[in-house]
Write a structure and sequence with these properties.
Length: 485
């Protein structure tokens, strides 16, 4: 009973929120290098240059005007440029992960660090950086878990190719993956193609200059084909590779027992299941094809696209779980915050300072829903609690609220394994060390077991220090999830 003996306990980060070194050693610009900080009340902005040469900004969800290109304003602070500087602290940080007893560490590669313009010119210094990181992990017996592409695209491909709207980007991505698969085939076993693929829909994330549904649908087709090709390629390079997909999973409950609320909830969840259905079952589901038909969306499907998707299904499902929500036909229900989206407020749940519903039972619910639907091994690759942490006069950080959150969620995972029989292979809590918030660009919203001295304006020593949750999680890993006190 309990978690498997080889259960992958660890933590998760992303290059654009943690790595820094945004132009170090030949790295090219990424779309997320042009996104500013924000806050609870102030949205993150994209800075860009119009085709007429004007410097402007726009909210990160909005499309850039036709012909506009990303622009870095030297007078603005961009959180990704330094982030919390893993680039220069990786040895120190990985040593701290080892102290916690990590069995694995989930990180992402920066496409523009390895292939600066996203095409075919490889930056050897970029490859060497990840060699050093993986070697440092393996020195401590920590398995690297690599997300190949996490929420960005090389700016050159966005500016000159319209990102994933352009079919040529498939080949560029496959080349990038072939490069890292061959380079790290003896160092990395677990891979994921795209982070939270169901949230990829804007210039910052996929490089498109449009909010048109047809453009997004075509872009997703290109990403599905690319992912499928990469899965097949990876298995040829190393038959022991495990290559998964990654999705943001926010389960919704019908707010009432009204039949319409329940039916609408099923239809609403199609927006999430679509991305898993394609990558796990290898085909477009009928409900999505009928939706496209109603909306007049006609995909430009080339010869072999659907065959590639059918042949390139994934080995496991990685997903993020932070919260649940409710769904209703009543549009007067209070709206609250959520992971990349606003949600209807569940009256039965407490919420975080950022309005996210706290629902540990929903994690067990989600594990059952996903495993029952697909029958593939499941990996919870993000889960965590964003909060304001106070450093006491003696330097301690008493984040009991984070410990309470994790205790309940790990117990829910344990119940899903022991009682429900879910095949769960690992758990990597989000932001195991403090990093820049993806949603708001803040440092104020902290997730880590390790505190980093950095504020929302980029001021601070970057000194690392352990929070109370550090030793608690260490004990959890030592006991393989049995000791949650």
């Amino acid at each position: 009973m309990g978690f498997r003996k080889d259960f992958l306990w660890g933590g998760a980060t992303a290059a654009n929120q943690y790595e820094g070194g945004y132009l170090s050693d030949g790295k090219g610009l990424s779309t997320l290098d042009a996104i500013t900080g924000g806050s609870h009340t102030k949205p993150r902005m994209i800075t860009f240059k119009t085709k007429e040469g004007e410097i402007k900004s726009i909210t990160r969800e909005s499309p850039l005007p036709e012909g506009a290109v990303g622009y870095i304003d030297p007078n603005i602070y961009y959180p990704s440029h330094v982030a919390t500087d893993f680039y220069n602290h990786y040895k120190e940080d990985i040593a701290l992960f080892a102290q916690m007893g990590f069995k694995c560490f989930r990180l992402s590669t920066s496409w523009s660090r390895i292939v600066p313009n996203g095409m075919y010119d490889v930056n050897e210094k970029g490859l060497e950086f990840y060699d050093n990181v993986f070697d440092e992990c393996l020195k401590y017996g920590i398995e690297p878990i690599v997300t190949i592409n996490h929420f960005d695209i090389p700016m050159y491909l966005a500016d000159h190719y319209d990102g994933w709207a352009n079919r040529e980007v498939i080949d560029f991505f496959v080349f990038f993956c072939e490069t890292i698969f061959n380079r790290y085939k003896d160092k990395v076993k677990y891979w994921m193609t795209f982070n939270e693929i169901n949230f990829l829909r804007s210039w910052t994330q996929i490089g498109i200059h449009s909010n048109d549904e047809s453009v997004k649908a075509q872009s997703w087709l290109h990403m599905f084909v690319a992912s499928a090709k990469v899965v097949q390629l990876g298995h040829k390079i190393n038959e022991n590779f495990k290559i998964g997909m990654m999705i943001a999973y926010i389960p919704t409950y019908a707010l009432t027992c009204k039949p319409q609320d329940n039916l609408d909830n099923v239809l609403h969840m199609h927006d999430t299941y679509f991305f898993m259905d394609v990558q796990c079952k290898g085909k477009y589901p009928n409900y999505k094809l009928k939706e496209y038909e109603r909306k007049g969306i006609k995909l430009d499907i080339c010869e072999n696209d659907l065959e590639e998707i059918a042949k390139g299904t994934v080995d496991y499902i990685g997903y993020s779980y932070y919260m649940s929500s409710v769904w209703t036909t009543d549009k007067d229900v209070e709206v609250t915050g959520g992971n990349q989206v606003n949600t209807y407020k569940n009256p039965y749940l407490e919420v975080s300072d950022w309005g996210w519903g706290i629902d540990a039972l929903g994690l067990r619910y989600s594990l059952n829903e996903i495993y029952d639907r697909y029958g593939l091994p499941v990996f919870i690759v993000e889960n965590g609690f964003g909060a304001v942490d106070k450093v006491e006069e003696d330097g301690s950080i008493n984040d009991d609220y984070r410990i309470d959150y994790f205790r309940k969620h790990i117990q829910a995972m344990k119940d899903a394994v022991e009682i429900d029989g879910v095949d769960l292979i690992g758990y990597t809590p989000w932001g195991c060390i403090d990093i820049v918030s993806a949603g708001t660009g803040e440092m104020k919203k902290r997730y880590g077991f390790i505190y980093v001295d950095m504020d929302d304006q980029g001021n601070g020593s970057l000194k690392r220090s352990k929070k109370k949750s550090f030793n608690w999680y260490k004990k959890v890993i030592e006991s393989n999830g049995e000791d949650l006190d």
